[in-house]
Amino acid sequence: MIESEGGEERGDVTAQTSKGLSQPDNLTQRSPRPVRLFISTGEVSGDLQGSLLIQALKRQAEQCGLTLELLAMGGDRMAAAGATLLAHTSAIGSMGIFESLPFVLPTLKVQRQAKRYLREHPPDLIVLIDYMGPNLAFCEYLPEQFPKAPIVYYIAPQEWVWGDRWPWGVKLFRSDLVVKATTRILAIFPGEASYFQRKGGQVAWVGHPLLDRMQSALDRDSARSALGIPADQTAIVLLPASRQQELKYLMPVMFAAAQQLQAKLPNVHFWIPLALTKYRALVEQAIQHYGLQATILEEPWAASTDVAATSLTLQAIAAADLAITKSGTVNLEIALLKVPQVVMYKVNPVTAWILNRVLKISLPFVSPPNLVEMKPIVPEFLQDQATPENLVQEALALLLDQNRRQTMMADYEGMRHALGDVGVCDRAAQEILNLIAPAEPTK
After folding, report:
1. Ramachandran assignment for 423, one of left (phi > 0), alpha (psi -120 to 50 degrees), beta (any other)
2. What is the DSSP code (8-state) at residue 231?
3. Which fold has domain 213-417?
4. Closest C-alpha among 327, 245, 261 to residue 45
5. pTM
6. Would you tell me how many other CB atoms lie within 10 Å of the CB of residue 347?
7. Pick the CATH number of 25-207+421-433 from 3.30.70.100, 3.40.50.2300, 3.20.20.140, 3.40.50.2000
8. Residues 212-234: what's their mean pLDDT?
9. What is the dihedral of CA 146, 147, 152, 157, to 10 degrees?
């Protein structure tokens, strides 16, 4: 059974605890050469999860005397954590049908680069992290090309959210392919674990890795002090984009809402962490266009391998009275830091029409805090409902209505308990390393 931190029954898979981690049984002797791991992910969130996993893999490998060679498709965070990048993928992700078209050729190009290198330097083990489209393609290619290399899918495609909701039995995504290709699926949500086990996968629920990341986050007072925020100032963090398309569809709505809030709250100041450095110019132009009192924060990822400790994004969130944010992994960071939030998302109108009218997709929620327990913990405004007026109304309610804030905080607490125990990344790393059988030394 899946058990939560408090031991409640949550499904059909046994969650490991963070207490008493044992050494992998089959890693008791030193490998004669470095064990080559290939890790594939993309977009900003995958780069973050990959970096946390790499740090844990290095910790666990050192404890059992194993030397790792870490190859990756990822981003700056993973490189800073110690991976050799075969291709940079954090900036070529998208959400939607037409939105994905500009990234098809760049994605194929970086995949060809990686395949070419791996054919000459075969991996001993493969880890796929999120990044659904490209990694599903790898699920077809890698087992044929490297049949002896175990494949782990860590943070599997979110088909578990909507896979049983498709009309007419339509299957746009491929849980069967994931199950067939993988030696192990490491799930971060209880529902994800249960879904893929029902499909026949070999699944372990390890918990959510952001629990580990939060251990080094500053508290509210320390974060406000670090950013120089006066005690009487209302601080709102704006998180409009980790993908290029979101600058077009989300940022104007979010910044228009911020403009209205600034007119109603003269003492407000906005903090805007950049997901990618290349977004700075467009964000600066938008700040000027809407006349916002705002500060841009840019992460110094290349300066340190300690991803969590250097996170200005976490500082801004922890210091904030409210977050107005796109849907995504960052929603969980906000919830774990106990900051009220309003969530929005928009895609190309034609994409939305196809999804709603042709494919008839019905999603219960899109924001991770709501998906954890399948309940409306945070307000979500999607597509036509994502208007400046709706964002402002909810933002003011959360800033001014103590009961609304308290309700959200109580729901956050319940959600936190459903995410598992701290030590997630080390559990995931141990599951991965347990699949490696070192070669016998030559006699």
Report:
1. left
2. T
3. Rossmann fold (3.40.50)
4. 327
5. 0.81
6. 21
7. 3.40.50.2000
8. 94
9. 90
